[in-house]
Amino acid sequence: MKLRAWMLALAGLGAATAVAAQDLKSPSADQYVPRLGDIMSAAQTRHQKLWLAGKAQNWELAAYELRQLKASLIEAAVLYSGIPVSNVTTLEPSLQSTSDAIDAKEGRKFAKALGDLTEGCNGCHRSMKRSFVVMKVPSDPQPFANQQFAPQARP
Ligand code: HEC
Question: Is the C-alpha dihedral spanning 66, 71, 76, 78 positive or negative?
């Protein structure tokens, strides 16, 4: 199979599963557009590092990871116009309270704010037919401890 045929075959596969596919900007050779799943994988890493930094009371690192996480979410909303803006703006209060807790160096407030923020992640996943991507406040420092892998009970 020629390269072009491969790419078309792959694109066809993606179209069947990607919700936001109709709104994807197709990357041109001079402009690389990260896939939404890749942006989200970065968000997952930052979400977990944010928790680890907060737990270790390394507030400077936590502030940095929060900025990075915000940047990922903004990038997702800007690049993928299929994401309703309200799904991103509903996260604003919990992003703000996480930031406030970091500034105040308050571990308990931080834990609460991160829990609210994590609910915001799931709220958008549910509304975008991705309810099987379930984020949680990490239970331990292992990689992917911030995701639930057991299937959800059907409503
Ligand atoms: C505004 C909507 C929205 C918000 C907010 C959001 N996500 Fe997502 N996320 C998505 C969509 C849509 C997908 C599915 C992407 C796809 O199908 O390619 C996704 C997929 C994911 C995935 C699966 C990626 C993979 O390839 O395995 C992870 C992990 C994830 N999100 C983490 C997060 C975390 C952590 C947060 C909160 C800090 C978050 N998301 C907030 C819309 C959102």
Answer: positive
Class of domain 33-137: mainly alpha
Site residues for ligand 1, CB cut-off 6 Å = 18-20, 36-37, 40-41, 43-44, 47, 69, 73, 83, 87-88, 91, 120-121, 124-125, 128, 130, 133, 135
Sorted by where each begins, the domain ranges of the chain are 33-137
Structure confidence by residue, pLDDT tens digits, 103-137: 999 999 999 999 999 999 999 999 999 999 999 99
Tokens of 77: 């909303």
47 CA: nearest ligand 1 atom: 35
C-beta of residue 90 within 8 angstroms of C-beta of residue 123? yes
Q: Full-prediction pTM beyond 0.70?
A: yes
- Specify which residues 147 forms β-bridges with: 135
Q: What is the pLDDT of residues 74-92, one digit of tens each?
A: 999 889 988 887 888 889 9
